[in-house]
Amino acid sequence: MTPLFPLNMVAFPGESVNLHVFEPRYKELVKDCMDEDRRFGIPSYAKNTIEYGTEVVIAEIAQVYDDGRMDIRTKAERVFKVLEYQNPMPGKQYAGGDLQYLGSEDNGNDSYMANMIELINQLHELLQIKKRYQPDDRVNTFQIAHNIGLSIEQEYELLKIETEQLRQIFVVDHLQKSIPVIKEMERTREVIKMNGHFKHFDPINF
Q1: 90 preceded by cis ω (within 30°)?
Q2: Domain that holds residue 161
Q3: Fewest CB within a 10 Å sphere: which of 131, 159, 170, 172?
Q4: Rounded to whole angstroms, how far apart are CA atoms 57 and 33?
C-alpha cells in the first residue's frame, strides 16, 4: 500500500512540486518515506474525490523548523488511479492506497504537436509572453499544462488521459476555444481605454 498525501492541486509527471508539511500525519509520512526510501502519491482532490493522482519522489528536505514543520522538494513521476483508498493507512496517521499506474508515455502525433505549438505561440503573443516555440520543438503536454489557462478541473481531466496524442487533442481543443475569447477581451480592453478620448472617424460616403 502506497502512502497518500491528497491535495487540491494537479501535479504532472516531470514537474517539481514544493510542499510545506505541517500536519503531524504528513510529517510522519515524510519521515517514513525517507527512512524506507519510498515514494508517495498526491491524489488530486480537484473534484472532491480520491481517484487519480501522481506518484512523487522526495528529492530534498529543504528546511526543518524548530516545531517539526518542514519544506520538501519532490519530483512528480507517474500518474496513477486509486483502486482502494484507506484513511488512515493501517498502523499510520496518514492515508494509503492500492494504485494502478497508467499507460506508458508516447511521443504523440507530429501534426497535432505542430498545431499545438502554433496555438501556444499565438497565446503567448496575446499575453505578451516572450517565450516562443519553434516548429520542430518537441513539447510534451504535461510540460505546458500549467501555462495555458486550464482550470484545475481541466488539468485533472488532462491528467486522466493515458496517451500523449489524446492529450494533444485536448490541449488543441482548449486553445482553439480560449484564444478567440482572449482576443475579444483584448479588443474590449482597447475600446474601454478609448472611452472618453477624442476619436477620429473617416467620413462615410453615401
Answers
A1: no
A2: 110-194
A3: 131
A4: 9
